[in-house]
Fold:
Amino acid sequence: MKKIPSFTINHEKLLRGIYVSRKDQVGSDVVTTFDIRMKEPNREPAISGPAIHAMEHLAATYLRNNEEWKDRVIYWGPMGCLTGNYLLLRGDLESKDIVELMKETFRFIAEFEGEVPGATPRDCGNYSFMDLAEAKREAKKYLEEVLSHMTEANLVYPI
Structure:
């Protein structure tokens, strides 16, 4: 069986950053899938399940309420390896196009106060599996260490 493209990325060289994972033609639209990589794979501990779950609720809520981007947002969710998230946006986009959006999103998570949106038994299938404090720490770390200092190496997959 042929490897899918995301399994051909050299994860031993992959840095934290924002990468275009793929582009798909859907009808007359292009959908760009972004790899929002928060951890260096196999070199840093993964994000805990409860933290990335809280982050998912917060980021999805923020993005789907963002006046400039909400009509382009298709999906935000965690990677199975727990080293980052996927963001799918309508449009033929590049990594540099969403750096400011990701800064705003991770600032929102890092500074969030209150109850996590959708964290109730009625609204979520595993509502108690969340760690807001850790989600905020991880978001702040990514914002300060990566998003605030983006370079080409954080925007283009390594060869």
